[in-house]
Structure formats: structure tokens, C-alpha cells
Design brief:
This protein is an alpha+beta fold. Helix content is 42%, strand content 11%.
């Protein structure tokens, strides 16, 4: 496998690999005097087992120590690291095989049961470590990752061989990284476990249609290929529906995704404070230095990961960036120290944390607040103070996606009688010649090939085109239109009709004009998004982008 890919993958795994410390010397200050000799002996056994890549023994030893001393932070760290060693050395090595077999058997939840158990245990223990400010030290530990890729692809090299050494001191910041990553992985696994993939049907359809002109002509007619793909959803009736083969119903797994994401965000939100609190400690696995001592992660602060690639003897980050000398010289020193770019102001990280808090509040609450465009101004002001969002024409409530879960299949575009996705576009009249009918010429109505027709919306694509890089195809500027299966996404998307009269649902004027009935302007009136008003928002955004690209700055919708 290409070394660049290997080290990219190792970079992604390094967060998962911030895992393999040990249960050796404790710096918690909890007091070794409170531990009897049996607890100390069990912790030493756990530490030795981790050094010998035996997470099962480490887990049993440290669990026994915790049962004797329920407040022992060393035992908590030992169990976290045993779980993560199992994830990387064993569960992670089998992840490709598990994923493929799970897809084929439509039983992903069972295929990942071992990985799920480890991640769940980690996520339950990291808050304990953080709350008690537990520190834990082990000089070094090797981590090996050797997945067999032969089942996934035919190549001359069917495995990745990675071996790194980690050390030395683990604390609340490292726990937050592990907790956030574990919960993020759980969100992914739960979302995957919730759905059926009808793999046999998908393989049959792809085998029968991969040479179809609608697909092979993708560069010249991208919408045609997308529309044609609707046949896959029509033929494979279980594809992306909730599964009934998992140990529990698919809706159960999908309902947990929101809480998984909320927990991941909450862990990450507290990471900057944990780093600053331990600034200047070079022994940390995630060693951070607050260069200007302002108590905020910002430009010119530095990070160094306690990770060494055993094949080269280099710091893992330095090894990963060694293929790009410019990037290495700008942000990564030869010893692997990463410098935060100078343009990251002291407002940016707090602004990101504030946004994370809003998203967490929505996902974690039974009475969540909607997330609106103006919420982004806290970050926009930190980056470009002169730019601000002036309106809340659309609002999102992600909580609703998971509180009353619906399968992903419900959100795909609707199908016309020919089993094609109802996806269309508008181009300028001068660019429409020779294009199929679903590339409308100018401002037109849409979805007349089904039951969800909408009238024109008053926005027309500009006469602008560009050449596709590397494919020698001239593509006209397009404004996309999609007949969403559920445009409100289970109530998660809302539109404020008072922001602009044209957002109101047209009242069916025979000539296609925009006869409307709207609330008073300036009176906030959020309603679930519809096919018409959601496409209107998308059209306005696309038009604005093209206006920026051409530099013409034509009159834009007020939103």
C-alpha cells in the first residue's frame, strides 16, 4: 500500500491510538496509602499485560482492582487503555472484514459487537477521569495495526503494517480526546447498525447497469446519471430502510445517534481548557504549550504528540508530513512539534466552543432550541468582523432527526413513474441548447414528471459556464432543484415565511405566477420546510455563488 496512504491512515488512527498507555505509576495524588497491597499488585499486573499487548488480562486485573477500590483513578485509566488497545490491536484490525461481512449479512450491529462494547466502556469512564483530574504515566508502549485488506480489494499488497510507540503521561486532555472519538465512532456504528443495505440486490443492480449510457455519460449529463440511480432505490426496496435483523430494531440504534453526537461534542468542547490547564508539560501524550500565556488556544501555540513511528524512529506527525516539505517547515518541525497558524486569533477557539455548545444543547435537550444562521455570527465575527448573516430564513433542529427516528430512505428524492429520481436544474436560455428537458431553460416550473410539481420561483441561472478540469467538458452554471422525499427532514428544517414573500407556498395560479398568502413581513413565522420553499433557498444560494464567481454582483434576494 502507498506509504502516503499508510501514514494518512496512521494519522487518523493516532487519535484512536491515544489509547495505549498503561496502568503503571500514578500521579493522581489520590494517595497510594489508601490502596492495599492487593490493589497495587492487580494494577501492576494490568500494566504488565498492556505492555505485552494483552488487553484481556489487563482488563480483568484492573477491574478486580476497581472492585476493591471503587475510587481508584489508576484502575479507571487502566480499563480505558485496555479497551483502546483492544480496539486498535484486535477490533480495529478486523474492522474491514467485519464491515464487509456485516453489509453482506445485513447484520452490522452483531459484526461490531466487540468494538461497540469497548467504545461504550471508554465513553463511560473518560468523564470519571476528567472529573477527578486523573494523571497516569507509562514510559512507552507499542501499538500494532495489521488489517487484512484482501477481502476488500485485489492488490499486490493486502495489508497495512503499522507499529508506533506511545507515551508517557495521560490526563484529562487525553481522556477528552478518547471520549470524543469513542462517542463519534459510536454515532457512526449506531447509524450503520440501524439500516439495511440489501447488498445482494445492490450488487445485482450495479452488475446489470454499470455500462448503461446514463452512467457512462456522466461528465456530459451529470443529472441524467443521478436521475437514473433512482432505479436502484426502486428495485432494492430494503435499501436504507430500518433493519429488522439487528438484535434490536433499527429505530433503536438510530435514536441513539443524537446522544452519541452530543456526548462527543461535550467532550471536545472542554478540550481547550484541559490543554491550557496542563500547558508546558512535555511529558504529556498530547503536550501543549500556551506560547503567549493568554489561557486560550490560538496562533503560535504548539502541540506535540507522544507518538513515535517505530519503522523510521520519527515522531508520527513528522513522519506523516515528511512527504510535503513546505507543510513541514511551515507548521511542523522535524521533531513533530505542530505550531498553530499565526492567523488563528484568540477569538476563534472560544467562538467554536460557543457553537459547539449550541449544537450540544440541541442534541441533548428534550426541549431543544433551533439552530439558526445568525448563530454563526459568533464565529464569523472572529474570522471576518465585517461580514455577518443578517437573517434567519431557515432553522435546523437536529434533535428531531433522532427523537422520532425515520430511516435514511425516507429522505431520498421522490421517484417519477419511470423510477427516476426527480432531480432537475435550470440554466440560462443561451446555455440550454442540446440539453435534456430536465435542464430547464430560464426560470421554469419543476417536477412535472411526477406528483410534486412546483411553479417557477423568480430566480434564473446566470449565463456563465466553466470547463471541467481534466475532462474537457464545458458545464453551464446550473441552479439545482430536488423533489425531496421529506423536505423538512422529519421536522428538522424550518423556513421563516416572513423573511421574503416568495417563500410562501404558491397558491396555484394557472399561469405559474407567484400568487401568495404570507404573514406580515418581520413577524417571525417558522413552518416546516416544503419542496418549494427549500428549493427556493437552495436556488438563491446557488445564484449568489455564481454572482460572486462572475464578479457581476447582480441584485440578490434579501436573504
Amino acid at each position: 500500500m502507498d506509504k502516503k496512504i499508510l501514514f494518512l491512515f496512521s494519522g487518523l488512527l493516532m487519535g484512536s491510538a491515544i489509547v495505549i498507555g498503561g496502568c503503571g505509576q500514578s500521579n493522581t495524588g489520590n494517595g497510594a496509602s489508601a490502596q492495599n497491597s492487593k490493589v497495587l499488585g492487580l494494577l501492576q499486573q494490568g500494566s504488565n499485560a498492556l505492555l505485552n499487548s494483552d488487553p484481556s488480562t489487563a482488563r480483568s486485573s484492573c477491574q478486580a482492582a476497581l472492585s476493591l477500590d471503587k475510587n481508584n483513578c489508576n484502575a479507571q485509566w487502566c480499563l480505558i487503555l485496555a479497551d483502546m488497545q483492544d480496539v486498535v490491536d484486535h477490533q480495529g484490525t478486523a474492522v474491514v472484514t467485519n464491515l464487509i461481512s456485516g453489509l453482506l449479512d445485513d447484520d452490522i450491529a452483531d459484526s461490531f459487537s466487540g468494538l461497540t462494547a469497548d467504545l461504550t466502556d471508554i465513553a463511560s469512564r473518560t468523564p470519571v477521569v476528567e472529573a477527578n483530574s486523573c494523571e497516569f504515566t507509562l514510559s512507552t508502549l507499542s501499538l500494532e495495526f495489521h488489517p487484512d485488506l484482501s477481502i476488500a480489494a485485489s492488490s499486490t499488497q493486502n495489508s497495512i503494517d503499522m507499529k508506533v510507540s506511545l507515551g508517557t503521561q495521560w490526563g484529562p486532555a487525553e481522556a477528552r480526546v478518547l471520549g470524543s472519538m469513542s462517542n463519534s465512532m459510536m454515532a457512526t456504528i449506531d447509524a450503520l447498525s440501524a439500516h439495511s443495505y440489501d447488498a445482494a440486490c445492490v450488487i445485482r443492480w450495479v452488475s446489470a447497469n454499470y455500462n448503461n449510457p446514463a452512467i457512462t455519460n456522466f461528465k456530459q449529463d451529470p443529472l441524467g446519471a443521478v436521475r437514473f440511480a433512482g432505479g436502484l432505490l426502486a428495485q432494492c426496496q430494503d435499501l436504507l430502510a430500518f433493519t429488522d435483523r439487528a438484535p434490536k430494531p433499527g429505530a433503536y440504534y438510530f435514536s441513539r445517534v443524537g446522544s452519541d453526537m452530543a456526548a462527543a461534542i461535550q467532550e471536545a468542547q472542554g478540550l481547550p481548557e484541559a490543554l491550557v490547564k496542563d500547558s508546558g508539560n512535555p511529558r504529556k501524550v498530547l503536550a501543549y504549550t500556551d506560547a503567549n500565556d493568554d489561557g486560550i488556544v490560538d496562533g503560535l501555540d504548539t502541540f506535540k504528540f507522544g507518538c513515535t513511528d517505530e519503522a523510521s524512529g520519527k515522531n508520527c506527525v513528522s513522519q506523516w508530513t515528511s512527504h510535503d516539505p513546505q507543510r513541514t517547515s511551515m507548521f511542523v518541525s522535524p521533531d513533530g512539534t505542530v505550531t498553530v497558524p499565526f492567523f488563528v486569533s484568540n477569538k476563534i477557539v472560544p467562538a467554536v466552543q460557543s457553537l459547539m455548545g449550541m449544537v450540544w444543547g440541541n442534541l441533548a435537550s428534550e426541549d431543544p432550541a433551533q439552530l439558526k444562521p445568525k448563530d454563526l455570527n459568533v464565529l464569523i465575527d472572529a474570522v471576518i468582523p465585517s461580514l455577518a448573516i443578517k437573517t434567519n430564513v431557515i432553522a435546523a433542529d437536529p434533535y428531531k432527526l433522532f427523537s422520532n427516528p425515520q430511516p435514511l430512505r425516507n429522505y431520498y428524492p421522490t421517484l417519477n413513474p419511470a423510477d427516476e429520481f426527480q432531480v432537475e436544474a435550470e440554466v440560462a436560455p443561451a446555455n440550454a441548447a442540446g440539453l435534456p428537458w430536465y435542464y430547464g431553460s430560464g426560470d421554469t416550473g419543476h417536477f412535472t414528471d411526477g406528483t410534486t410539481a412546483i411553479v417557477r420561483d423568480g430566480i434564473t441561472a446566470p449565463q456563465y459556464s466553466f470547463t471541467c478540469p481534466g475532462c474537457a467538458v464545458t458545464i453551464p452554471a446550473m441552479i439545482p432543484y430536488v423533489s425531496f422525499g421529506d423536505p423538512s427532514f422529519n421536522g428538522a428544517l424550518s423556513v421563516d415565511l416572513s423573511q421574503m414573500l416568495e417563500f410562501c407556498e404558491p397558491q396555484g395560479a394557472a399561469d405559474g405566477t407567484l400568487a401568495t398568502s404570507c404573514p406580515a413581513s418581520g413577524t417571525e413565522s417558522f413552518v416546516p420546510a416544503t419542496t418549494y420553499n427549500l428549493n427556493k433557498i437552495i436556488a438563491g444560494a446557488a445564484y449568489g455563488i455564481y454572482s460572486y464567481l462572475t464578479g457581476t454582483n447582480p441584485t440578490m434576494p434579501v436573504w
